[in-house]
Amino acid sequence: MQYDAIVVGGGPIGAHVAKKLGDAKKRVLVLEAGRAGGLTWEGYRTYVDSFYTQLVKDTNSPYPMNASAPFPHETDLARIAKGTPDLTGYQVQNGPQAFASTYLRQLGGTSLHWLGTTPRFVPHDFHMRTKYGVGVDWPLTYADLEPYYREAEFSMGVSANRLDQEMHGVWFGEGYDYPMERIPQSYSDQVLDRATDGLTVDFAGRAYPVGVSSLAQARNSIPRGTYRPVGAVGNPEMGQRCEGNSACIPICPVQAKYSALKTIAACDHDYVTVTCQAVVSRLIIGDSGRITGVEYIQYETEGGNTTTQTVSATIVVLAGHAIENAKLLLASGASNGSDQVGRNLMDHPFSYAWALAPTTMGSFRGPLQTSGIETLRDGDFRRQFAAFRVDLSNVGWDIVNYPPDSNVNDAVNAGLFGRRLRAKLADELPRQVRLGYDLEQLPESRNRVTISNEFRDAIGCFRPVIDYDLSDYTWQSMVESMKVSNAVFERLGIPPEGRFFEAPNADDIPDEENYRAPDGKDYKLNFIGAGHHVGTHRMGVNRFESVTNRDQRSWDHENLYIAGCGSFPTIGTANPTLTAIAVTLRSIPDMLRQLR
Amino acid sequence: MTKTVPAAATARCRPKIETVEDLRCHLQIALELEHATIPPYLCALYSIPDGSNAPASALVRSVVMEEMLHMVLVSNLLNAIDGHPKLAHAEFVPKYPTYLPNSDQSFLVDLLPFSRQALDIFLKIERPTPADGQPDPDHFHTIGEFYLGILAGFEQLASTPDAERALFSGAQSRQVTGASWYYGGGGEPIEVHDLASARRAIEEISEQGEGYDHTMWDHDDQFGEVDELAHYFRFNEIRCERRYTTTDSPHQRPTGAAVLVDWTARYPMCANPKASEFAGQPDIHAMMMAFNSRYSALLRALEQAFNGEPAALKAAVPIMYELKYCAQALMAVPSGRGDGTTAGPSFEFVG
């Protein structure tokens, strides 16, 4: 069978490529390394049931481990001893900091466990070099992407009000509003909104407002106009509205949250074939530099028998995740004329501050997150240190100590039971407050994915080897972010001794640094990953400094596209999936030109 | 188990539909009829613990969603002819076991947990109308025949353009429209303002519901939905533990893929519980009353929504979730009947 396009990876990026090319009546083969479990309602329910029974409910807990297509787990992470790579998990971690983010190899990809937060990039994010003298510029502007943002927001089903999102120069096409109304803000959002009224912080000599606003979220809400929410795959009456189950990460039990399964189900299956349990191991490069075939390993059962096959198509689109795309390119010796493949790995290092407010915050109501502090995503301070989004949790201390279970444990261990136990929990849980910081990181050549013959998985594919560190640009921002926490906690009436900037048991956090700030003070900083892997095959304006052009087409192989978050030259402060889909939708016309 | 057979329901409407008042009265019965199916379906649905019997649970749930839509459609029909849907009163709610209102009283409907016995009742409720089925709004054998009677009433009372204008005199603002407040899933409300839209609403109810015995599939092209089986056939898939194929005939058993059904994976709720029988068990009684109080609050919210305030549906949705939690809590508690059953929701109106 001759295909028009082979798409490597069945996550949100691969699903959108398949959908668009299939709709244009092109024959598409999607090769997915993981299993197809979620494509039926019964199969999806097994994930939900598995989640309910897991003791550690981390990001990948609902999804079965798979020796033939392994993926990282939060429980793999350990603090890295100097000079000794950590081999605990799927990723080989060279450090010095652990790359503390996970992803998922399963049909639907990491969109199975994501939160669904979908802010757009702000216009200055595309011009960091020109505007602030750091990082690099994108080969695209906000205006180039705006129509594709709209298309992506409709395709995923994003709930937001345009007026809430018009900030930092973000603008919308004439007459546009999101397909669904914003998800109502939680009680604790409203408490924080009132508390921060008129609040500012001083950053690099300028006052910036600290204000709460509604988040754009790919979770179903009340539709606008003729748009209709898309429910669960195989059970469309389910999940037409967010029900506040508060399990968005790692799994929405009703599929009110967007996952790529919805886009895969919507493909024209006369044109789109999805083959799962097919791990692409190598791209075959012809004499002309074109990709003449794709070699993949098909496994029957996890860890079981495998057969190696090849298949060819007019174009090949890699959509396997920033880390997996880089790994495959390196394994194939492909597209690396620039020596940029695997480099510039970025994430949003995530630090937090937490406290017990003197009066109720109304925590533990609503889905995991409904608002953020978005006012510090841009400003002149970005010349000196990273911008950030502030993530507001509706579930109290959240990842600080995984409440409420941990609080119940502590109280029981302290000898409380019955009415006194209930009274203590009812008093303390609703007063928990946590501010989280998704900090920007600059592209750095040393932060990279490599491969090594030493490290292979059960079917002989390479495991990713990761070198990762933070620069002062981000460390300093982590220190500056404490100004925001202190200002907000002050407004909430929390005294300085009641404010905490480290995990209760900091040894559980893989990443820590003793950092001396420009003011000469020493800080003990720790962070975890946000799961926003970007930068490993960046787009650019020339073949010397980038892996692809602005259509995500490889400079070295004219029929190869390398798509997704790995294409980002810089990370900005937005959760990346929406932008990755918009960038990919923008690449579709170029793909279709090759298929004419 | 001994059944208390209720006295034959006294006809609350004048037989036949000859006046607008007759039509309004029969549409109120239609609303009660649609509602009467929901408690038994919910008992079956909620008795399935989360995570077990996924295919059966999804099928029953999809039917319940559509019954809720049918209540909206009937209320739109009634509002279109300047009627006033009434839900928040004790007579609206049947006392189970019950005959379906205005039926030929050929079977009783019980509140039962998910079981073959419950499915057999559901199949009777949703039995298809024969191709030569006759309109019968007063002693119907199939619900389809009841709606044929309603449709005939509309047609007769709107036989001329003037009569049609006079009949459809209800305020447009009382219609529940669009997808704003109506939580989708079962389909979308049809706004009723003339005979043609009334016909569409009635056909939607009949096609989704019982279907006709010459066609199994509810062809709903309006919203680009996949073809769905009418309720009877969906229930029969569970009962026969097998899917229909597109080539199966409505008169045959389904011949498609197996549907995995575990008849033991359900809470053994006692049949037709009443709050009063638990008077001696204060904890259970309090849970039953909590359920009934939320259920009554739901009927009040719906009555408000169907009487000029469609936005009240927004407040109704969270109550539906509360009902589920209350019902499942009851189903986990031994009933005290000494027969291995658990308690369950009684669906009684409290003023």
How does this structure look, described?
The complex is a heterodimer of chains A (596) and B (351). Chain A has 596 residues and is α/β, with parallel strands linked by helices. Chain A contains twelve helices and 21 strands. In chain A, the strands form six sheets. Chain A has a six-stranded antiparallel beta sheet, with helices on one face. In chain A, a hairpin with a 2-residue loop joins strand 4 and strand 5 (206-209). Chain A starts with a strand and ends with a helix. The mean pLDDT of chain A is 95. Chain B is mostly helical. In chain B, 44% of the residues lie in helices and 1% in strands. Chain B has nine helices and two strands, in the order H-H-H-H-H-H-E-E-H-H-H. Chain B has helices at 20-46, 54-80, 116-125, 143-157, 161-167, 195-208, 231-240, 282-305, 313-331; strands at residues 217-218, 228-229. Chain B has a two-stranded antiparallel sheet with strand order 1-2. The longest helix of chain B has 27 residues, at 20-46. The interface between A and B is medium-sized, with 18 and 21 residues.
